Every structure is written in structure tokens, then in C-alpha cells.
Amino acid sequence: MALTELLIVFLIIQVIHFLGTWKLYIKAGRKPLEAAIPIYNAIVLMKIINRPTWWVILLFIPVVNLIMFPVIWVETLRSFGKNSTLDTILGVVTFGFYIFVFNYVQDVKYIKDRSLKPTTEAGETISSVLFAVVVATIIHTYVIQPFTIPTSSLEKTLLVGDFLFVSKVNYGARTPKTAVAFPMVHDTIPLANVKSYIKEIQIPNFRFPGFEKPAHNDIMVFNWPTDTIPYFGYTGPDRFDKPIDKKSNYVKRTVGLPGDNLQIKDGIVYINGQVLDLGDRAKVQYKYTVYADKGIDYNYFTKLGYNELTYSYLTSFTNQRQIEAIKPYLVDAQDQGNGSYIVKSYNIPQQIIQEYQIPLQPVMDKEIFINLIAEDVEKLRALNVFDSIVKYELPFEGTRIFPHNRPGWTGDNLGPIHIPAKGETVELTTLNLPLYEMIIKDYENNDLKVENGKIFINGSEANSYTFNQDYYYMMGDNRHNSEDSRYWGFVPQDHIVGKPVFVWMSLDQNIPWGKFFDKVRWDRLFTTVHGTETPHSFFIYFAILMGIWGIYSFIKYRKKKKDSFKY
Predict the structure, then answer these.
(1) What does the pLDDT average to over 383-406?
(2) CA 248 to CA 59: how far, in whole Å?
(3) Which tops the pLDDT comparison, 202 or 441?
(4) Rounded to the nearest 5°, which phi and psi values hold at 544?
(5) I need a labelling partner for 172 at 20 to 30 A (CA). Which of 22, 107, 326, 539 fits?
(6) 483-487: Cβ within 8 A, 24+ apart
(7) Cα 314 to the chain's mean position, in Å?
(8) In this structure, are residues 148 and 164 in contact, taking their beta carbons and an 8 Å threshold?
């Protein structure tokens, strides 16, 4: 929706407000024209319903205003003596048009100094919940948002099962694109499996100023530009046509900035001809083939923190208790006959094996594929227990690599690619057009056609193009297991969500909930995402502060309860 269309919608709302309330303004001692002046009419209305003037701001915050409108309708009804449950229901289900009835038909009286305290416990609860939802929505949309790591593309740096807080203010908070949406959910209403938004009413792009710009190596959360994953949420027929802020959330590392020339050689990223310095926090992994003729002992990898391997054992159970004890860790089980099984599992705790006396004979593979970081490869080679550890090279995949017209490129060897910057002009040819086609058509909303070898933009022949915003190149640290810019291209600046600041919870997905204290990765709680050297947990400081707050709240509660007995 263009700005002009949005203004038309705003004016229609103002007309409806005037027609539905001007007599009520008179009864409240105000002039009828005050109901017709945009914004000022809202300020006057706050005085009429005896609510603070700053509530007007909430009426102009997208999504939050959807919560505030019903509140204002109900508050208006109550200011003119309409306090019954039926009045409240009618005010909400008619989208405020019930106010027209007593504005024109009924003779109501204005209650100037009405009590603002809810008359019932249910009313008190509803008021508290609404206030909490409004505050949470503002924080979630404009300040900080929780986010979960669902995939292993940043494994060893950020783990599957990490729960992050993502700052919106670092790069500048973005106003929602969707004006009508369910608060604090993404593209789908939980359980109902229906869209959480109406895409027909959209707000022009706007971002508040941030206090930093994205830099090389920043881990960034963004909306995936080419959102085509059906299992990320709503699975309806138009799931591929989402507003920007409802596209799937991705988290990757920023390797290319606007204006950079990027190239990848043997998996190493080069920026403007120099190897990109990843710092000491990044744990870049590649896939390796590990071979040992005597068999591979997985314990060497477990000691280095690689827990994604599945172990194979030959076993024979002697009782049902053993089966139940091992079941939470099982991945697969194959009956070998004669009461024996080959079972595959994640690392079964030694305590379980000993407690239930489970006979497990390891079955060691001679060859495995595993993602490893370079420093660990050197450690493993130094042990001299493997015959070979060979880095895997991604194969040619036709035209899967962006921009999909360079069949010689692979995920390990591609480029050079120039990353567009705002205001920059590039020469366009039919050869380089695939690099910028999505930018011109989809991200910057132009009509693009190629006819008889000539490029036409918005009906005019074009041999150059000037970009309207900055673009970024994103990659996962798990280089051989990451769906990133190598496959789908650039991230527009208006798709940036925010910057992860710390991990507040981390749960090991391979450990069952019954082993809660083992499932929680305690050393990762309240660790920072960025910075240098080994991440340090601030959980103990958080726990101390929460303890102090708990004691303070308890003392305050006891004092309040004691004072109430005096009366």
C-alpha cells in the first residue's frame, strides 16, 4: 500500500470517528468540530475518557493500535454510562460502530469524574493483561525480540536450541510492514495454522536511526528474501507472497557489505582481494571424510564437543527396564535375530549403561562424514589414530549457485561478486543482469523485461541501474551445511531484523526433557553473542539479581499485608 493509499485510509477513519462521536463531544462540554481535527481529536478524546494524553501515541503504533482501538471504544462507552457486559461486547464486536447508536438515538449523560478502577476482579484482570500485551508488543516490535536457533548453519558459534535476544535498536528498529496482524507472533497463529496478518494493508518502509551499522562478521537476523519454505509456518496457497516482516527469520554471519567485491576460493572468503578476518569467536566448519581401517572411535569427537554423531552398538536386552532406559536416546534399531539388535543412538550416558547393566558392544564404522573446525582437525591429526582426514569439496551443482547462470561456480569456489550499495550505479548487460534481477524487480519494485537482447526497466531501455538501498552477503559458519547467500543472493537493508546480543537459554536437542539438568547447557546461559575470546556466562549475576528482587518483593508484600490489617 502506497503512502497515498495509507493517508486515504487514515482520513476515512477520521470521518467515521467524527460521524460517530460529534454529539458526544458536545455532551462532554467540547465543540463538535474538535471531533473532526485529526490527531487533536484523539487528544481531546483522551481528556473526555479521562485517560492520559500519551495514549494517543499508542494509537499510531502499528499492531499496538489494534489492541488500543477496542480499549478506546469501551472507555468511551463507560464515560457515557454504558457499563454493562452487553455494552462492552457490542462495542467490541461491532468494531466501535455501536457508539453511533447512542450518539444519535439514545439520550446518554457524560460522567465527568467516573472511577477508572474496574468494578470486578475479571475487569481488573483484563485491564492488566491488555496493559501487559501492549508493553510486550512495543518491546517485541521496537526494542528486543526473542529468537530460537532452529538449524545448524552457525553450529559451534550458535547451537541448535540456543534462545537469543535480538536487539532491534542496534541497526535501527523497523516499523512493521503489516498494519493488521496478530501481536507477538510471526506469520502464523499458533495451533490454528492460519495466517496471523492481512497483507492487503501494508505500511511504507521506515526504519528508525540505529547507533551502529552492520559490520563484517556481525551475526544478523533478517527476513529471508526468497521465502519458499512451507514448514516454517503458514502453509496456505499464497505462502510465497509474504510481506517483508512476515518472511521467515534467518540468522547468518555478515561476510559482505555494500560496495564490497566478494570471492570464495576453496571455501575461504575474500573481500576486496583480502582474506576476511573472522575474529576469534567464529567457529567455521567444513565437512571432512574421516577414515580408519581399524574403525573410528567416536569418543575422540565427543571430547571435542561434537555430539551430533550417532553411535552404533550390538546389544541384547535382558529385561524391559533396559529397553525403556535406552529408548529416549535411540535413533534406530535393527533386529539381528536371536534376540540381538544393532541400535543407533546419540551418546548414551555412562550412568544409564551402568545403572541398568545394558550390554553394549560398539560397532565402529571405517568411514564417516563430519563437520569440523580447522583447529580441531589439527588436534585429531596429531593423535595419529585415523588413517586420513580429508576436507570435502562441494561439487558442481549446475546453476544452483547464485546468480544461477555460472555453471562453473560451487559453494566453495565462486565470484567475484560485487555487492550493491545505495546510490551506486552499475552497467547492465544480459550477462550480469541475473545478479541484480531480483533487486530491480522484487526488492525495488520495478517492471523489468528483456526483449531481443535489450533490457527494459519500467518501459524504457536501460543500460545501467542505480540502487535504492544497501545490500549484504550472508553466510553460515557451517559452510557445507548452510542455505545462505551463495544459493539465493543478497539481503536487502529493509529485510534486516536486528542483531543478536546474548543467549538467555540453551537446550541440547539430543537429551530428553526427563534429564532436564543435563539438557540445559548451563555454560551458555546469558552469554554474549559478539565480542572476543571465549564467551563468558553471566547467569550467576542474573540469578543473584533475581534473588535480591524476590526477597524485596516478598518483604514488600508482607509489609502491604501487615498494613492492611491496621484498617
Answers:
(1) 91
(2) 28
(3) 441
(4) -65, -45
(5) 539
(6) 483/153, 484/153, 484/252, 485/252, 485/255, 485/256, 485/402, 486/264, 486/401, 486/402, 486/411, 486/414, 487/400, 487/401, 487/402, 487/411
(7) 42
(8) yes
**What pLDDT does 385 receive?**
93
Secondary structure letter of residue 427 according to DSSP: E
Percent of the chain with pLDDT over 70: 94
Which H or E run contains 141? helix 121-142
Look at 238-252, 400-414, 497-511 and tell me which has the smallest mean pLDDT: 238-252
pLDDT tens-digit readout, 20-69: 999 999 999 999 999 999 999 999 999 999 999 999 999 888 888 888 99
What's 351-372 look like in SS3? HHHHHHCCCEEECCCCEEEEEE
Can you say whether the dihedral through the CA atoms of 234, 243, 39, 96 is positive or negative? Answer: negative
Cβ atoms within 10 Å of 279's Cβ, excluding its own: 12
Q: Which three cell numbers stand for residue 290?
A: 574421516
User: Which grid coordinates belong to 66?
Assistant: 489494534
The answer to pTM > 0.70 is yes
Residue pair 535/527 in contact by the 8 Å Cβ criterion: yes
Does residue 448 surpass a pLDDT of 90? Answer: yes
Place of cell 580441531: 376
326 DSSP β-pair partners: none
Using only C-alpha atoms, what is the Rg of the chain?
30
Burial 149-182 (b: 16+ CB within 10 A, else e): beebbbbbbbbbbbbbbbbbbbbbbbbbbbbbbb
User: Quick one: average pLDDT of 261-280?
Assistant: 93
pLDDT band (50, 70, 90) for residue 200 = confident
CA pair distance 265, 83, nearest whole angstrom? 72
